[in-house]
């Protein structure tokens, strides 16, 4: 599944470092698209151009304050992820809580970085997340799996499964989807892959693949979906190579 992707990644690595302004424009493009699509998947109604305006510090009339905060908070969370990658830091459980704290900042401060204390259900999904009293145990199992059992996995497989298992636990009252996509890209970026964008137009396939992973423990469809998006991001970077 990954042979062609790995070849493209090797070609990108052979042409690094990319020019400074090329990297800057690629980062800005992906930060905007990642923020727009991740929020749109969760129901944010800001358009791509409106999201761009909010990132530039301008308020969009007729849109809720929460939608503005979701954009600003997501940008800050991406910056936080980039810092973890640049410093080559590990991903302990407290880092996940920090990411969630950034995502929910000023939206729901009471639950920002705090595991939920209520049962939740995922609209349209067969999978039911665990009861609140199981969350800590399941998160510890996830972190143990991540720390000790994923070293030989391809980065796309590791990131996809981290995303899927985390969002299946649904440890927070809100913001789990955004955090799961941040964790996915954190794993990819740690291994030198560009961040990917899961597009809102593919939301149905995305949700169906996740539900299959949660109910049947079959991660194949989800990994293939993520692999396609990873290849798209690699292609974008490769188009910037002029030498």
Keywords:
243 residues, Fic family protein, Fic-like fold, 10 helices, 63% helix, mainly alpha
Structure description:
By secondary structure, this protein is an all-alpha fold. The protein has one domain: Orthogonal Bundle (Fic-like fold). It is 63% helix and 0% strand. It is built from ten helices and no strands. Helix 4 (65-86) packs parallel to helix 8 (176-190), helix 6 packs antiparallel against helix 7 (155-169) and helix 7 packs across helix 10. The protein is globular and about 55 Å long. The record marks 42 as: Important for autoinhibition of adenylyltransferase activity.
Brief overview:
The protein is mainly α and 243 residues long. Helix content is 63%, strand content 0%. ATP binds at residues 174-181, 206-207.
- Portion in beta strands: under 5%
Largest beta sheet, briefly? none
Total number of beta strands? 0
CATH fold type: Fic-like fold
Which structural class fits the helix and strand makeup? mainly alpha
Number of domains in the coordinates? 1
Q: Would you state the CATH class?
A: Mainly Alpha
Using the alpha-carbon principal axes, give the shape: globular
- The CATH architecture designation is Orthogonal Bundle
Helix content: 55-70%
The average pLDDT value, as a whole number, equals 97
The CATH homologous superfamily corresponds to Fido-like domain
For the terminal residues, how far apart are their CA atoms? Answer: 28 Å
Could you give the order of the helices and strands? HHHHHHHHHH
Please work out how many helical segments DSSP would assign. 10
Low-confidence stretches: none
What is the gyration radius calculated from CA atoms? 18 Å
Active site: 170
Organism: Salicibibacter cibarius
Keywords: ATP-binding, Nucleotide-binding
Site (Important for autoinhibition of adenylyltransferase activity): 42
């Amino acid at each position: 599944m990954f042979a062609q992707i790995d070849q493209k990644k090797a070609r990108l690595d052979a042409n690094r470092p990319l020019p400074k302004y090329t990297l800057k424009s690629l980062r800005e493009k992906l930060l905007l698209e990642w923020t727009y699509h991740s929020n749109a998947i969760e129901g944010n109604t800001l358009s791509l151009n409106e999201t761009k305006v909010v990132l530039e510090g301008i308020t969009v009339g007729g849109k809720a304050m929460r939608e503005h905060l979701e954009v600003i908070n997501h940008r800050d969370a991406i910056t936080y992820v980039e810092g973890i990658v640049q410093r080559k830091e590990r991903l302990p459980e407290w880092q996940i809580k920090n990411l969630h704290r950034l995502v929910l900042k000023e939206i729901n401060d009471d639950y920002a970085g705090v595991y939920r204390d209520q049962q939740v259900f995922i609209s349209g999904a067969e999978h039911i997340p665990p009861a609140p009293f199981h969350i800590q145990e399941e998160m510890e199992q996830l972190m143990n799996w991540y720390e000790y059992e994923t070293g030989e996995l391809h980065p796309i497989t590791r990131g996809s499964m981290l995303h899927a298992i985390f969002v299946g636990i649904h440890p927070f009252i809100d913001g789990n989807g955004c955090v799961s996509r941040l964790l996915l890209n954190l794993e990819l970026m740690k291994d030198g892959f560009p961040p990917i964008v899961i597009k809102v137009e593919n939301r149905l396939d995305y949700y169906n693949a996740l539900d299959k992973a949660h109910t049947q423990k079959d991660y194949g469809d989800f990994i293939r979906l993520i692999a396609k998006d990873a290849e798209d991001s690699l292609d974008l970077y490769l188009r910037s190579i002029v030498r």
